[in-house]
Amino acid sequence: NNYNFSNNLPQIQQTNISISPPTIGEFFENLEKTYECNFDEIKNKFLQEEIDVIDILSLKEYDWQNLGIKLGVKAKIMREVEKYRK
């Protein structure tokens, strides 16, 4: 059996489909619906600091601490923002 199947396989083109990120307001609305919590205070901190959804991905631990974001809240935000990672 000297079959060579590798050349017969269709080439699968990988597409990087990314959802365009929402505004910070929409992002926190989604979080509120998902977790049934009020994120207004945190949303306002992000707005004051002009942090958009993509910026969240690059926040360092000290940034979260400076914003005064609790670990559980950070985890919820990070779970939601992963949808927009390219």
UniProtKB/TrEMBL annotation:
Return the InterPro entries for the record: SAM/pointed_sf
Gene3D superfamilies linked to this entry: Transcription Factor, Ets-1
Q: Record's superkingdom?
A: Eukaryota
Q: What is this protein called?
A: SAM domain-containing protein
